[in-house]
Design a protein that fits this description.
alpha/beta, 45% helix
Length: 741
């Protein structure tokens, strides 16, 4: 479906839901057919097929969450290869993580296009830098500094600035931001001021540390990952012969997650392209959540301006999430503001209906963690695999209370976004032990009478700390066991996929996975920050700690920063396939003052909350009362916190005694029947039964009181308020048609 960039485009409602389209995330890569090129197109929906078959000129794919974007672009490459329009070696596909690049390579191999290069920006640039360094610079290429924190700490010490662990991380992030935005140390303070960025400490001080960090690298003959991009850009700018050699090699480019490109990455892409336009970009401005690293959606949003002849395809059929999850995700974006919001995509779920999102309020953080752990345990008991459940939070510091709660509940978990799997000490020792056992073969006493590969691995790893049963509790011992258990499961999967495989074969597989940072899956509940969850999905997702001050986070001051926080919540919501739970706590510790409020992003979405207007002032003008921040909704009879929609309407528990005026309720029902018939609407479109019950219980005497009842918004107050107040006062409702005004 070709549309001008920025215009909303919807597919025919549900046309393809049961029409034989294979779900994007669970389909065979290469269905059997006579013609390999045609086979690649089988199972694609109309928009994905257009992406796959549009091989010439610039192409911009605006792809919502769960719409099969990786499927579309890998099938595009494979279709081009099998139809003879693309040579595999002439295509370079770039993305942002090793995991995503590895997944893309795997899909391309499955589609018979294994000769295509699929890499991260850094990996592609590093490969080119290694190859051309002798020709462009001469001598040996500097060593790569993989962990810059130690150098930043030393730079700070030399500048007589003491940095604690948190400050060290923040200053390192500032240096990375400066480099990807091509800002030198002397220009850093001005660049921060211009961008509206909030620096973690004095900008002149950070500029001094940044300059010293660069000096230390030069003195020791080292470069960091940002230097890889900067040096590659410099060589391609200065050496036209090298630039032309690369352009002769790569003639077609595909860029995934294009909303996340930094100015430096865009500059490198421009140099790779030269004057050509054989470029396909894929992205979603509503998933821009890494601006703190220099990422900007501007390149995606300006693509049609830069390439007026570009083909723009929108993918909005969501194959991942149920209609209930998609409805909430769309609702979040409907309240968004700013340029990215103007280009939002309204998703259309292609899945069967599922459970409604569950909202839960707790008195304090430990109670919230315990409640989440109980719910997780119930899901596991109901058959949801622990590895298909995630608990997502705004900052990593929130994880500890959930680690403890899950451990206490006997639920295994893994912490994502911590130390890389293959860099963990226990994993390195385990691989050394496996490699040693592979070399010794039948001479290793651990392998006496052990033939099957999985059993061999379990035997070897038993010497490094693995046991058949996990240790009790949480902490380092449990984390180490989970790492070893992941290696055991990997070996079992490897043996099933390759019958007859040996320990030596497994060690080769582990080396390849380490090089690609393709870690095995730990069979436990995933604990991760919302940022670390990008690009992943689970059957059940718990979004926790959703309070103002945490999401949006306190230091999000500008409108754009707040909108990025909203997009972060949107990313979290769209990670869920089936079950979605959202929770918050009113205080940090038991007995604390309940001063917290649910995230403002949930207003109008969670039961009992007000629908926000486009602006505070405008909303105040339309509303008959000013809505302040709401505290917890408490039952007016027993005082219990209310969370269910029906209870919130009544402001009491369902089983608490009602003081409803039965006669008033029946008069309201009669009036509603007449109005609904007169307007040609179902009765519930006037007011639901629960709203009528709430009105009959409250018997409001003025508009302000009536508007306080959940289900009576400004529009219904204007349309029906006079009639309802008249009935509550024992009078006949007026005959004027309020809605004719």
């Amino acid at each position: 479906m070709r549309t001008p960039c920025g215009q909303l485009s919807r597919p025919p409602h549900r046309t393809w839901q049961h029409g034989g389209v294979t779900a994007a995330t669970h389909s065979p890569s290469f269905p059997a057919a006579a013609d390999p090129a045609d086979a690649v197109l089988l199972g694609l929906d109309p928009e994905q097929r257009e992406v796959a078959t549009t091989l010439r000129g610039p192409v911009c794919v605006l792809a919502g969450a769960g719409t099969g974007k990786t499927r579309a672009i890998t099938h595009r490459i494979a279709y081009g290869v099998h139809s003879g329009q693309l040579m595999p070696a002439s295509v370079l596909a770039v993305t942002f993580t090793n995991r995503a690049a590895g997944e893309m390579r795997g899909r391309l191999r499955g589609l018979g296009a294994g000769g295509v290069q699929a890499r991260t920006f850094h990996s592609a640039a590093l490969r080119q830098l290694h190859y051309f360094w002798p020709k462009a610079i001469g001598g040996d290429m500097p060593r790569l500094l993989e962990r810059k924190v130690q150098f930043v700490a030393e730079a700070g010490a030399r500048c007589r600035v003491r940095l604690d662990r948190g400050e060290l991380r923040d200053v390192t992030g500032e240096i990375e931001w400066a480099k990807v935005t091509q800002t030198v140390p002397a220009d850093y303070p001005a660049a921060v001021l211009k961008s509206g960025r909030e620096a973690p400490r004095d900008t002149a001080e950070i500029a001094q540390i940044y300059a010293m960090y660069e000096q230390l690298k030069r003195d020791r003959g080292m470069i960091d990952f940002e230097d890889v991009l900067l040096l590659t850009v410099a060589i391609l700018q200065d050496r036209h012969d090298i630039a032309e050699q690369i352009r002769a090699q790569y003639q077609h480019f595909v860029v995934d997650e294009y909303q996340d490109v930094s100015p430096l990455q865009q500059r490198l892409l421009d140099l790779w392209l030269g004057e050509r336009d054989s470029l396909c970009v894929v992205g979603d401005a509503s998933q821009t959540i890494y601006s703190f690293t220099g990422a900007t959606p501007d390149h995606l949003l300006n693509f049609r301006t830069r390439y007026p002849q570009a083909t723009v395809v929108k993918l909005v059929r969501d194959y991942r999430s149920t209609p209930q999850v998609v409805h909430l995700a769309n609702g979040l974006l409907n309240q968004a503001k700013g340029r990215a919001a103007e280009h939002r995509l309204e998703l259309v779920s292609q899945r069967e209906a599922g459970p409604d999102p569950v909202y839960a309020e707790y008195p304090d953080e430990p109670a919230e963690a315990e409640g989440v752990a109980r719910r997780v345990r119930d899901l596991v008991a109901a058959g949801v695999p622990a590895g298909e459940i995630a608990v997502l939070f705004r900052i990593n510091a929130q994880s500890e209370v959930y680690e403890q709660a899950l451990a206490d509940a006997g639920v295994p978990y893994q912490l994502r976004g911590a130390e890389r799997f293959f860099e963990r000490n226990e994993v390195q020792k385990a691989i050394l032990a496996l490699r040693g056992a592979a070399r010794s073969g039948g001479n290793d006493p651990l392998l006496d009478d052990v033939v099957e590969l999985g059993s061999q691995v379990r035997a070897v790893l038993s010497s490094t700390g693995w046991t058949a049963e996990p240790p009790a509790g949480s902490g380092a011992v449990r984390d180490q066991w989970e790492s070893l258990a992941a290696l055991v499961r990997l070996a079992e999967d490897f043996a099933r996929a390759r019958p007859g495989a040996t320990l030596a074969d497994l060690t080769v597989e582990l080396d390849e996975r380490k090089a690609a940072q393709h870690a095995p899956t730990v069979q436990g509940v995933t604990l991760a920050s919302l940022h670390a969850a990008k690009g992943l999905e689970w059957d059940a997702v718990f979004l926790v700690g959703l309070t103002d001050g945490m999401l949006p986070i306190t230091y999000a001051k500008t409108d754009e920063q707040v909108e990025e926080e909203r997009r972060l919540l949107y990313v979290g919501v769209t990670r869920a396939r089936h079950h979605l739970n959202l929770s918050w706590s009113l205080s940090r510790a038991p007995g604390g003052r309940p001063s917290r409020r649910p995230s403002r992003f949930l207003n109008g979405l969670r039961p009992g909350s007000a629908v926000p207007g486009p602006g505070t002032a405008a909303a105040a003008e339309r509303s008959p009362r000013k809505r302040g921040r709401r505290g917890p909704a408490l039952c007016r009879v027993c005082g219990r916190t209310l969370t269910e929609a029906g209870e919130l309407k009544l402001m009491r528990c369902e089983d608490c005694p009602s003081d409803m005026d039965e006669g008033l309720y029946e008069r309201l029902r009669g009036w509603r029947a007449a109005r609904s018939k007169e307007q040609g609407l179902p009765p519930y479109c006037v007011f639901t039964d629960k709203t009528l019950m709430a009105i009959a219980e409250a018997a409001p005497s003025e508009g302000g009181d009536l508007s306080m009842i959940s289900g009576v918004g400004a529009r219904k107050l204007d349309r029906y308020g006079a009639d309802v107040l008249a009935i509550c006062a024992g009078q006949e409702p007026g005959t004027a048609e309020a809605d004719d005004a």
